[in-house]
Amino acid sequence: MDFGLSEEQLMLKDQVRKFCESKLVPQAQELDETQEFPWDIYKHAGSLGYIGPHLPVEYGGGGGDLLAKAIIYEEFVRACFGFNLSVNAADLLFANNVLKYGTEEQKKKYLPPICKGEVLGSWALTEPESGSDALSIKSTAVKQGDYFILNGQKTFITNAPVAQYLIVIVREPGTKRMEGGTAFILEQGMKGLSTGTKFDKMGARCSPTGEIFMEDLKVHKDQVLGEVGRAFHQMFQSLDVERALTPFSSIGIAQAALDVSLKYAIERSQFGRSISEFQLIQEKISRIATGVEIARTFAYKVVWMVQNGMKVTKEAAMIKYYASRMVQHAVHDALQIFGGYGYMKEYPIERYYRDARLLEIGAGTTEIQKTIIARELVHQAKPKGDLK
Ligand SMILES: Cc1cc2nc3c(=O)[nH]c(=O)nc-3n(C[C@H](O)[C@H](O)[C@H](O)COP(=O)(O)OP(=O)(O)OC[C@H]3O[C@@H](n4cnc5c(N)ncnc54)[C@H](O)[C@@H]3O)c2cc1C
What we know:
Blueprint: H1 7-34, H2 39-47, H3 66-79, H4 81-101, H5 104-115, E1 121-124, E2 140-144, E3 147-158, E4 165-171, E5 181-187, E6 193-194, E7 209-220, E8 224-225, H6 231-245, H7 247-267, E9 269-270, E10 273-274, H8 279-307, H9 313-338, H10 349-356, H11 366-381
Parallel strand pairs: 1-4
Antiparallel strand pairs: 2-3, 3-7, 4-5, 5-8, 6-7, 9-10
The structure holds flavin-adenine dinucleotide.
């Protein structure tokens, strides 16, 4: 395994950094205030190949690998976490599922407009009473000839208020846990489908989050994604890719926090000296920098494992857990370096502090990651005869 990025990958990182510094960074604070998704930047990013860089060229993607996606992902987050949260729901959660389980028609129809940055997609599992216990969802699909009638509600769905295309996971009435789940691709404007107004959130504020309501929503069987009754089996198979990328949200925010706090520490003087000369400030800088470096190195390893077809259930949970804890310490330390200025909206650290909090909740909470790690370890350690 090569730990360094290739010339080409370094060039990509540099280009995306420049794009973000000129387009996204100057607007990030305002987007946080207005809670508006920046469609113009999304489209611009699409025209440069930064949306769906890992998707096949024949469906409008960049034809690159997951590492290319990880590099762009981290740079987008470093500039504006909310922007990337929405991009990720479209070109990873929505698009990867269509790519893996969709028919040729579905791929040709739904992937190119996303890669061009023209439309957003959503992937909806969570319901008001089903969060961590995802297999307890209650929304239903009843077969009626060539159609299915969908009823139920989804909540906390990234992009739902503005997404053109939405994958929803629902179940056949009476089925439980892993059985009876089916995924459907819905389109805005369908009769019986509505998405409420966006929630007012603590962080990631330019990424619209909301609900999906399905009331006797009649959906043709051509809109089924993958196999009827197999949605949960499909979901667990495609989770590895998504989980491997999520830690780059933590890494991107922590890197941003490091960059601004290092600059500030050098420029700020107290007691007649730059505060960067005080050992207690240096301690914080070294702690943030070390956390970022360790998290990124392990995150690259997990991406490498996915690309090489290896199972990463335990490793992806480990890096999600580690990186999302690491970033909480990083933004805490960075804000402390800023003192009172860190508490003001004048500097971006206040936004990073709020944005980072989601990383211990979304895409599986920290508690659930620990549960997965322990379950995998216990499973591996048990003598084979004892396994139930
Ligand atoms: C901004 C945002 C965007 C989101 N985007 C999407 C999206 O696009 N699509 C989607 O489907 N979902 C999305 N979600 C939902 C997200 O995945 C859930 O919020 C998350 O899975 C946790 O579920 P919950 O909020 O219902 O918390 P709960 O599951 O109710 O958990 C509450 C607390 O109990 C703990 N807990 C629960 N079970 C256990 C256990 N077995 N052991 C120990 N502790 C436990 C949790 O860790 C947590 O601390 C989003 C959420 C947010 C906030």
